[in-house]
């Protein structure tokens, strides 16, 4: 049991990761990397795909290079990261409401109705494009994206900055994350970490609460702190 679970918490803000928590764009990121790997004749196993959750574009490429035992020059890396992003942006054109994680928008609306502030905390430089494309940008009081940060999850920067912009102290912020690196980042920020979805290892990463899906989540119990008492 973590120290957060032993004390009563008041949640004033919830910061959502984007890919895999609000929208299933995590699958489009994977498709983009898989296509790049196919181009290059490299392997892209499922466990490597999971390791890329929450990780910046260049760091993701490095993980793929390392897992294939391949090295590349800075220029080659720039080109490959750019190529993957072009693939990803092509896939984004297909994204519509069917790509929303079921219950995510309702959950955010319910939280807002109860006066909870909503933030976005994503490592993606494409995050605002995704929100705008789906017409859900206005659900977020503040958004911190890959364009605002210099350090990737598990560094807490994305969430610390989000809490500051929302004007809420860390212990009153909860973070919804599908990535091991994201749960670690939320914990490092001193926030309540909610491990969302089926990713392996969220428990071991120290998630304060595991939420398999939004249908499972009782929002009143969550805000009252009784889900982890
Ligand atoms: C999120 C995703 C990662 C992605 C990263 C950067 O954290 O979970 O899979 O690599 O954003 O995304 P970008 O759109 O900037 O390449
Ligand atoms: Mg994610």
UniProtKB/TrEMBL annotation:
What is the free-text note on the cofactor?
Binds 2 magnesium ions per subunit.
Record-listed substrate binding positions: 17-19, 33, 52-57, 60, 84, 122-126, 153
Is Metal-binding among the key words of this record? yes
* Keywords recorded for this protein, A-Z: Magnesium, Metal-binding
Q: Where is the active site?
A: 17 (nucleophile), 19 (proton donor/acceptor)
Spell out the PANTHER family in the cross-references: FRUCTOSE-1-PHOSPHATE PHOSPHATASE (PTHR43481), GLYCEROL-1-PHOSPHATE PHOSPHOHYDROLASE 1-RELATED (PTHR43481:SF4)
Q: What is this protein called?
A: Beta-phosphoglucomutase
